[in-house]
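Example record

The entry below shows one chain as it appears in the dataset: sequence first, then structure tokens.
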Amino acid sequence: MESDIDLILRVQSGDDSAFSEILKRYYNKILNYVYRYTNNRETSEDLTQEIFMRVHRSVKNYRPEAKFSTWLYKIATNLCLTELTTRARKHASSLDEIQENIGSLEDVKSVDQSDVRYRMEIKEIIFEAMNSLSENERSAIMLCKYEQLSYDEVAEALDCTVGAVKTYVYRGRMKLIEKLKPYLDEVQMDEM
């Protein structure tokens, strides 16, 4: 399998098939990452497409000193934060919309309705708890815990030090544990 850097060098020289390979490699990862910010499938798909359009437009500016995935997640994080700011200003997220979008992602064929409602409620509670964190805490937790990036990679993506990333993750975790304490009876706290 060709390395990311080799693919990017091919993209920089005009090889569109290399960009298709980048899309195959990262599209679903970025889509899932964006979904954790938006909690809306349609918005996530739109933002993911916009992220890859930005990557394609600015690929000439990519420097191989930085890991490609870190550069990609930085673009994704910046666009997600911009979207959240815009959405907050418009107050466009209603509880009904959130429930509808969570429900559309559930496979409800083999699950009874009470289980579906329970899962929707849990997802909503976690989504609200994550959104109560600062932008840096939320981004650091999502990149470290969900996307499995190293502290160094997260620091580069967030333009901060490794120590700051560790602080964001720690403080964010403590805030989440505090907010989710009433719901953590069945979940071990060290899994967060």
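Notes for this example: The domain at 1-93 is CATH 1.10.1740.10 (Rna Polymerase Sigma Factor; Chain: A). The CA atoms of residues 33 and 142 lie 7 Å apart.
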